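User: What would this chain look like folded?
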Amino acid sequence: SFQLFSQLNNPTLPTMPLSNGRAIKFVANPPDIPQTDKVFQIRFTGEIFKTYQEYSARLDYYREPKFSCKYTGKSGFNYENAIDHENQIKKEISSQFPQEYLPLIFKEIQYSQLKLTELTNKIYEKCLSEFKIKNNIKDEPEKEPTKITAFLQPQAPQLEAIPNNNEKKEQKEQKEKKKPKKKTFKHPFKKHLIRTQIRVAANQQHFKNAPWILHHDIATKYDINAEMPQSLKIIIDEYIKKQNEKNKPKQPKKKKEKKVKTKREKKPKAKKEKKRENKRR
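Assistant: Here's the prediction, encoded as C-alpha cells.
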C-alpha cells in the first residue's frame, strides 16, 4: 500500500519540473512493440512514440518556456533547462548551511504534517535558538518605559555658542569612544533557503495532513528514523484507497428494460347476467 510513497523517496528518480504549478504526466509507452519496428524516443524523458508526428508534437511541448523549478518556483524555462536548474539547486543548497545543523533540519522535516510555511518557520526558530546557544548569545531584555514623576516649569531660553564643524566632529568622536562596541552576529539561516532545503530533501503529497517524507538516501546518510508511525500509515492507507476508487473504470449503467403492458382479458360477467335473468322472471 506504500508503493506511491516509496516511489517518491527513490533517489534514482529524475527531477520533475512543474507546468502551471503541477507535475507533468508522461505519455505511457505503447505496449508490445516488436523489436523490428522503428520508434522515436525523447532523450530526457524516455517517452516512446510510434510515429514521428506524435514524437515531434511532444518535443515541441517540452521546448516551450512554460516550465518552472519545483524547488525554487523560478519559471520561464523549457523542460531541459528546468532540469538543469533543479540539479544545480540540489548541489548548491546543502553548502548554504553549516553541516552541523543539517541533522537538526532533517529530523524536523521527517514525518512532519505541517504546511511548508509553518515547517519553515519552526525550523528557522530551532536553528536560531541553537545558534545562539553555541555562540553564547543572550537576548537583550526589553527596556521598560520611564515614568514621569514631576513636571518642570518652563524656563527662559539661554543663548549658547554655536559650535563650528571641527567642534562637532570632536564631540561625535568622544561620544563614540564612550559607547561600548556591541558584538554583531550574523546567523546563517534564511527562510527562503530553509524552504528550498525542505523541497529538495523531502516530498509531501497534496492531501490533508500528508506527512513530509525524506528521501531514503538522506535519511540513511544522517541516521534519521525511517520507520513511519502507525497513525500516519492509517492516514496514507485511507488516501490510497480513495485514489484507487477514483481510478477504477466506471461500469456502464444497465438500461432498465421497459415492461410491456398486456391488455387484461375481460372476465365473463356471469353475476350481472344472472341478476338480469332473475329480474326478468
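The longest strand covers residues 18-19. If you want, I can go into more detail on any region.
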